[in-house]
């Protein structure tokens, strides 16, 4: 298990390769990558991601450990950035490795669902006009947790 | 204890962190005490259903006891990923 | 959409990077990679993958087109190898890009479920003793299709 | 028409592909005709529930008509991924 919280960009290709090389015995590897996309209204120029240093690492570690205990995973990876990111930049990735595909998929979705609503990150959209708006938590994201 | 604020709670209260001396027994009592102190706290804590609290970096409920807690943090629902 | 059927290895890092770079407007990218793992009995040395040239490409194209029409995807990728592969080698990958994570995850799982049971590939395990055994289709894999 | 065999069906019948002249109207009739021809076909086609068929590279049922079909393929359930 590896948890990384950093402001610097990460190298998706290198991280994916490294994770796959380290996943001995796995038959299935799933990755999820989150990218800063245009807001639905289309005026966003950047996103500020605030986090709670200390608690963030603890929360991510605890979420990943729970995934490892619930599914028969050989490994899990979480990388999450903070600070100012621009449209098209990669915010975060998770990866899971398991003997079977269903476990790898389910664990990756579990990581994402918990990371969305239980890891202390907050997003603020920086709009073209100089305005800024905190992203509100979605009811859907909270509801997604009831699945697990 | 240290009290930390994040996101719009931090912006509304105006500081990211402060030292608070209190006899509050629960989080809810601490919230009431701060709210009574100044309008900016009252504004930030007006709707507790829009807030979350962590005690020593673990999510907690507003009726949780503060005994032994060194760090309390208030923030809106998280939006990671 | 890109469909690749080849006997040569593919470069997971490069393919992931290329797919991510091309996924304009996407907020979520999911990849699945299948790896030849040790058989559960542990005596497998290699896997022969037979396929039906012509039908394979048609079937994969049709499965990916269906995924693109069912979910709001910005792109999809399927790479599948055939021929002799050894333990630890990557057999195949799929990738999906969408504005939202649920669509990217669901479409990737759909691709995998259909690819398992509706694309004309057959796996034969080459065992250490010189024996070989065709991999039987799993009832679970057929049942997985009823989800969609 | 061309008849193709894959995986253990190919191994049991002994060829990957052959040209078959037939008046069979459906896949099932073609299977019966081949099975009557030699034991190796009868062995391969013994349990149709363990077989799949494609007509011109599209999955089909065993009662599907052969009219206009140029390529028939028989194989076990697929195991991709």
UniProtKB/TrEMBL annotation, chains A, C:
<comment type="subunit">
    <text>Heterotetramer of 2 MoaD subunits and 2 MoaE subunits. Also stable as homodimer. The enzyme changes between these two forms during catalysis.</text>
</comment>
<protein>
    <recommendedName>
        <fullName>Molybdopterin synthase catalytic subunit</fullName>
        <ecNumber>2.8.1.12</ecNumber>
    </recommendedName>
</protein>
<comment type="function">
    <text>Converts molybdopterin precursor Z into molybdopterin. This requires the incorporation of two sulfur atoms into precursor Z to generate a dithiolene group. The sulfur is provided by MoaD.</text>
</comment>
<dbReference type="InterPro" id="IPR036563">
    <property type="entry name" value="MoaE_sf"/>
</dbReference>
<comment type="similarity">
    <text>Belongs to the MoaE family.</text>
</comment>
<keyword id="KW-0501">Molybdenum cofactor biosynthesis</keyword>
<comment type="pathway">
    <text>Cofactor biosynthesis; molybdopterin biosynthesis.</text>
</comment>
<dbReference type="InterPro" id="IPR003448">
    <property type="entry name" value="Mopterin_biosynth_MoaE"/>
</dbReference>
<dbReference type="Pfam" id="PF02391">
    <property type="entry name" value="MoaE"/>
</dbReference>
<dbReference type="GO" id="GO:0030366">
    <property type="term" value="F:molybdopterin synthase activity"/>
</dbReference>
<dbReference type="GO" id="GO:0006777">
    <property type="term" value="P:Mo-molybdopterin cofactor biosynthetic process"/>
</dbReference>
<keyword id="KW-0808">Transferase</keyword>
Automatic annotation (TrEMBL), chains B, D:
<comment type="similarity">
    <text>Belongs to the MoaD family.</text>
</comment>
<dbReference type="InterPro" id="IPR016155">
    <property type="entry name" value="Mopterin_synth/thiamin_S_b"/>
</dbReference>
<dbReference type="InterPro" id="IPR012675">
    <property type="entry name" value="Beta-grasp_dom_sf"/>
</dbReference>
<dbReference type="InterPro" id="IPR003749">
    <property type="entry name" value="ThiS/MoaD-like"/>
</dbReference>
<dbReference type="GO" id="GO:1990133">
    <property type="term" value="C:molybdopterin adenylyltransferase complex"/>
</dbReference>
<dbReference type="Pfam" id="PF02597">
    <property type="entry name" value="ThiS"/>
</dbReference>
<dbReference type="GO" id="GO:0000166">
    <property type="term" value="F:nucleotide binding"/>
</dbReference>
<dbReference type="GO" id="GO:0006777">
    <property type="term" value="P:Mo-molybdopterin cofactor biosynthetic process"/>
</dbReference>
<dbReference type="InterPro" id="IPR044672">
    <property type="entry name" value="MOCS2A"/>
</dbReference>
<keyword id="KW-0547">Nucleotide-binding</keyword>
<protein>
    <recommendedName>
        <fullName>Molybdopterin synthase sulfur carrier subunit</fullName>
    </recommendedName>
</protein>
